[in-house]
Amino acid sequence: MMFKQCIAPKDTLFNEIIVLLDKANQILREQYQQYLLHSDTFNIQQKEDQSAVTQADFSVHSYFSTALQNLTQKYPVLSEEGKHNERHAWDTFWLLDPLDGTKEFLAKRPEFTINLSLVQHGKTELGIISVPQENCLYIGYAGKKPFKYQFSDHTWWVYEKSDICLADQVLRIGMSHQSDSKQMQYFLQQLEKISPLQIIHAGSAYKFCLMLEGLIDIYPRFHPTCEWDTSAGQCLLESIGGGLWSHTQTPFMYNQRKTLLNGNFIAFTHMQYAKYAFQCL
């Protein structure tokens, strides 16, 4: 177990976020149940990039657009489902994916999340990933141990890294359910020369949660994501001694470019895993 139970952190923003995410989780769970029961009438659209967006995405986005402005600290919101034309004027802002894992949602796999992060001057200062179907969230500031909060019994848990022998361990690789590109196959073949592998398929940012729980070591990504997909997860991984790097071995920065699309990346929970992974590209 990577988290041990602890007393509630004395942090006003954490307390406000818990209330906000509790309601957002409820909205998304209700939308998911509606989709499971009435998928034929559930509103699903296609974006310009041909990816799906649903009424669930819009419902959670609408809630956050108002709720985030009720927090003590008020900042603009850069949401996947919002407008992006004013973002370059923002030094500090909330970065939001109201439903990360729309493909998992539509495939009726409960591996979807809500991603929320506070970005300042291109760096993520606070990362939150909430898992509605597990009724929990992961939250942490950059450079500090992250916490896990369980909504069902109102318990807090703090990250505690366990001692592991890297030399004797099977490498656990997190992959999306659709990851079968030639680039991925080559990467896995090269990595298997270093260590035995265990492949773990999971949806989108849910893989970051499994990394925090000590169930995935390396998460390679060779197809597109956007900044709201990675910001919170990167912050949380960095806070446990891991990271998320581009293929030039540099951490992602946020809201610094014309595009919000990310390039390929490697996410990892330990610097030794990063060394293994980048040998195989």
Automatic annotation (TrEMBL):
GO terms of biological process kind: 3'-phosphoadenosine 5'-phosphosulfate metabolic process; sulfate assimilation
InterPro entries from the UniProt entry: CysQ, CysQ/Inositol_MonoPase, Inositol_monophosphatase-like
Cofactor(s) of this protein: Mg(2+)
CDD domains named among the record's database cross-references: CysQ
Catalysed reactions, semicolon-separated: adenosine 3',5'-bisphosphate + H2O = AMP + phosphate
Pfam families documented for this protein: Inositol_P
Keyword DNA-binding appears in the UniProt entry: no
Family: Belongs to the inositol monophosphatase superfamily. CysQ family.
Protein name: 3'(2'),5'-bisphosphate nucleotidase CysQ
Gene name of this polypeptide: cysQ
